[in-house]
Amino acid sequence: MISVITPVYNGERFIEGCIQAVIKQNCPDVEHIIVDGCSSDRTMEIVKGYAAHHPHIRWLSEPDQGQSDAMNKGIALAKGDILSFLNVDDYYEPNVLNRVTEIFKTLPQPSLLVGNCNIWDRDDHIRFVNKPKHLKLEDLLLGDDVNPMPYNPSAYFYHTSLHQLVGLYDLNEHYCMDLDFLLRAVQVAHLRYVNEVWGNFRRIEGTKTFSIGEQGLLASHSERVLNKYQQQLPWFQRTLISWKRQFFKAIQWNRIKYFREHPERLIPLLKTQ
Asked: 20 to 30 A Cα–Cα from 203, which one of 15, 155, 213, 255?
């Protein structure tokens, strides 16, 4: 069984679409756990209405200490061997849950299974496709400009048993709890990347991710978490990763300078991508 966990607070704008996104997967082995932080809008009215007709939907509504706390409560309620987090404003591609279930039958425990994710902008256009091909700790610590990290949990799944080895989501981490968990998980999990689009992450005004992104805080929060895990490595590895990051930054800066001086060569290059 896959346990899909959705933390939500005052999400009446999106919750129905989120619930329907799981229903439309037509997956016989799924439960959808919705953890609400005592919303003051119609969120729970909508959830209860669907739960009355769909037994795979379970819910909890009580005060919490933030998103990480809600996610941990969902894990405690989960009955599935596989976990997925679906934020209230995100969604899966068709038939992803059945596809993932089949792949997990071939994977050892604990495994982290990662696919690609469409990143949508505020105008409802696909800005780019997140393809996190390199998942080892030393790859992710080089930063997103070098090795893209998994952007959104709608495109990755893992064995519930993984939490027994790396712990739960950090209650003190309110912005990059996913990245913090992943950097722990990749150190112990069997890693599998599949070059297929599984998830959809939407940058929508009014959401937490959009707000901190507009303020320019997302990059600084991510850098803080990356530095924390880099500092836990032996001296030689820390130094090597720092050197590699500087090396790749230099390469990128040289590319920027080149195309600033030769802008006419940029457009033909983009057309080939």
From this structure: 255
